[in-house]
């Protein structure tokens, strides 16, 4: 793996954790350093997905609270 790739991965703790959780991606990065772009796209898609899940969880909680308040009235 290229030293610049290793450095950029270790600088971002969340990116490093993502790589540890998806260790099969290490083989792709070792075989072809150009696959770093693919790795970053997957990581960014995962982060975006997590953000949407968090937002949906908050909205669901607000809807539940609203329903509880309406039923109490």
Helix-strand topology string:
HHHH
* Uncertain segments: none
Number of domains: 1
Oligomer: single chain
Describe the structure.
This protein is rod-shaped. The longest helix has 37 residues. The mean pLDDT is 91. The protein contains 4 helices and no strands. The chain has 73 residues and is mainly α.
List keywords for this structure.
73 residues, mainly alpha, single chain
What is the gist of this entry?
This protein has helices at 3-11, 13-21, 24-31, 36-72. It is an all-alpha fold and 73 residues long.
Describe how the helices and strands are arranged.
Layout: H1 3-11, H2 13-21, H3 24-31, H4 36-72
